[in-house]
């Protein structure tokens, strides 16, 4: 049982360390491959979308914050769906319509989304007497997460041939990757919640999540002002 007590906090600490690196984007090898694709390549884009989400520490940190105190599956489904609708919308529109936003600023907002959810979990907004609609906030930050990926895809020389089909495949892949990441998170949280340490360590765990968000936010602002 001690193993489960340490596993999720260790994972959160790992993600915090990951957030001190560069913004999560498209791997160099994947980017090179995408730029060689001409025409419809639904399955490769599906795979790359799933890979992006599974390895996307910024998305996973936000999801961890969202489900931290959600005990009912219908609540998990509601918030994850709102997040998915948000990032799917801006991912598709950003690439297909060419709606571009500065990548550093978008990733800074993504960092703030992690900070926001951790701060809410810590009861910070209640102490300030701020009444925020969590559903609206999760959906809104979903828009930012989608923009984060679309800006990176727009920096690549993507073929316009079959782009709509490829983006649908990529977006479905992102959703599959989110489902896989969410499944692992739920299993870890469920195991942790059955131990006494959950409520004892919940505050500290959210401090770790919030710290990771601030690190990502600061890193991206530094990039915006210096690059």
Helix content: over 70%
Please report the number of helical segments. 10
**How would you describe the shape?**
globular
Low-pLDDT parts are: 19-23
**Cα distance spanning the termini:** 47 Å
- Percent of residues in β-strands: under 5%
- Counted up, domains total 1
In short:
With 227 residues, the protein is mainly alpha-helical. Helix content is 78%, strand content 0%. α4 runs antiparallel to α10 (197-226) and α5 (73-97) packs parallel to α8 (134-154).
Would you mind describing this structure in some detail?
With 227 residues, this protein is an all-alpha fold. The chain has one domain. The chain has ten helices and no strands. Helix 6 runs antiparallel to helix 8. The chain starts with a helix and ends with a helix.
Keywords summarizing the entry:
227 residues; mainly alpha; 0% strand
Compile the SSE list and pairings.
Elements: H1 2-18, H2 28-34, H3 42-54, H4 57-67, H5 73-97, H6 103-121, H7 124-127, H8 134-154, H9 163-193, H10 197-226
């Amino acid at each position: 049982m001690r193993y489960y007590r340490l596993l999720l906090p260790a994972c959160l600490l790992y993600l915090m360390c990951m957030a001190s690196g560069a913004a999560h984007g498209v791997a160099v090898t994947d980017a090179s491959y995408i730029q060689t694709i001409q025409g419809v390549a639904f399955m490769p884009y599906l795979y790359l979308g799933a890979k992006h989400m599974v390895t996307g520490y910024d998305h996973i940190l936000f999801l961890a914050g969202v489900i931290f105190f959600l005990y009912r599956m219908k609540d998990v489904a509601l918030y994850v769906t709102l997040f998915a609708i948000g990032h799917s919308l801006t991912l598709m529109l950003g690439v297909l319509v060419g709606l571009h936003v500065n990548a550093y600023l978008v990733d800074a907002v993504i960092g703030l989304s992690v900070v926001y959810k951790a701060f809410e979990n810590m009861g910070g907004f209640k102490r300030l007497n701020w009444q925020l609609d969590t559903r609206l906030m999760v959906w809104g930050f979903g828009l930012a997460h989608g923009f984060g990926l679309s800006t990176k895809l727009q920096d690549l020389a993507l073929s316009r041939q079959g782009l709509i089909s490829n983006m649908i495949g990529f977006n479905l892949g992102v959703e599959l990757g989110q489902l896989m990441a969410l499944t692992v998170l739920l299993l870890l949280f469920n195991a942790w919640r059955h131990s006494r340490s959950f409520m004892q360590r919940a505050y500290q765990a959210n401090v770790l999540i919030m710290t990771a968000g601030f690190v990502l936010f600061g890193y991206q602002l530094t990039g915006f002002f210096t690059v």
